[in-house]
Amino acid sequence: MKSTVIALAGAIALATGIAGAGASAQARRHPSSSGTRCRRIHTTRSGPRPLLPSSGELSDGSFTGNQAPAGQLGGERDMIEGLQIGSLDVVITSTGPLGNFVPEVYALDLPFLFRDYDHARTVLDGEIGKELLEKINGNQLVGLAWSENGFRHVTNPQRPVRTPADLDGLKLRTMENRVHMEAFSKMGAAPTPMAFPELFTALQQGVVDGQENPVTVITASKFWEVQDHVSLTGHVYSPAVILAAPSLIDGLTEEQRSWFYEAAAASAAATRAEVNRLEEAGVALLRENGMEVITDVDKAPFAKLAEPAYSVYTDRHGPDLVTRIQAVK
């Protein structure tokens, strides 16, 4: 029996009753002409529910899985590296750390680039999204589908954030993403990159003051236990992407590859639906658990201060992709 590891990184952390930023699963491929392989899958909340059953149904039971707690395989960057060296097979990750491997993806993390969910989803489902998946495919990775985290918002225990001045001096955890770090620096915060599995403890111990994540992540992580204020700044739209290792995909038949692509598409659709639901229900849940939710945030002053962060991307890759994204209706 040959054993390998599949990891789907906990990028979304939707509220399905499992603790942590994601979940893992043990996937088994039943005997076939190429033998039997056992895989452990580390994955997101809503995402794996359709991904694992869909792959099982499409493959007539050749691929099945069971969920287990998250964080066992390290942070997202560690897991992406695992794909490249073949120690992991599949990862669902936010795009923040992915820019370290595929710099073109940094464009998606530019602050205040996307107007709303319709704009973001139209871009990723269209020609631009396909082009970026191809860029991913050229970096020892295979892009299966675009998924979603949602628009990111700021939380902290000290004060509500209504203006950039309210960010002044806040030590704010960010992803390991140069664009995010530069944007928050320009807006007055002190960005502190940190892997997500370390975040809750860092907030408890005061290593960082606050953090920024979509409502889906804030609710699933129960950040109300360590944070008092959430401001709906919507400063960055945070996609997720379902990736596979070339060592996995190259070893499959054309039909087997199609199972992974179809299951990934089903996972992404279910995740978007859950994001839609939690955008409303999540805010109510935050209030029920004692957080002050600031909804009347004037984004224009934040956007103006964050604009120089675009140079992190445009100085290297030019403005063309950014202009195309902005032009999508």
Q: What general outline do the C-alpha atoms trace?
A: globular
Class derived from helix and strand content: alpha/beta
Largest sheet features: 8 strands, mixed
The oligomeric status of these chains comes to: single chain
- What is the arithmetic mean of pLDDT? 82
Percent range of helical residues: 25-40%
Radius of gyration: 19 Å
User: What fraction of residues sit in β-strands?
Assistant: 15-25%
- Tally the helices: what do you get? 13
Task: Describe, in plain words, how this protein is organized in 3D.
It is a single chain. The strands form two sheets. Strands 5, 6, 7, 8, 9, 10, 11 and 12 form an eight-stranded mixed beta sheet that branches. A four-stranded mixed beta sheet has the order 1-3-2-4, covered by helices on one side. Helix 1 runs antiparallel to helix 10. By secondary structure, the protein is an alpha/beta fold. The protein has 13 helices and twelve strands. Helix content is 40%, strand content 21%.
Blueprint (SSEs and pairs):
Layout: E1 2-3, E2 23-29, E3 37-43, H1 48-58, E4 63-69, H2 76-85, E5 90-94, H3 95-98, H4 117-125, H5 127-137, E6 142-156, E7 171-174, H6 178-187, E8 190-193, H7 199-205, E9 210-214, H8 215-220, E10 229-231, E11 237-244, H9 246-249, H10 254-288, E12 292-294, H11 299-306, H12 311-317, H13 320-327
Parallel strand pairs: 1-3, 7-8, 7-9, 10-12
Antiparallel strand pairs: 2-3, 2-4, 5-11, 6-9, 6-10, 6-11
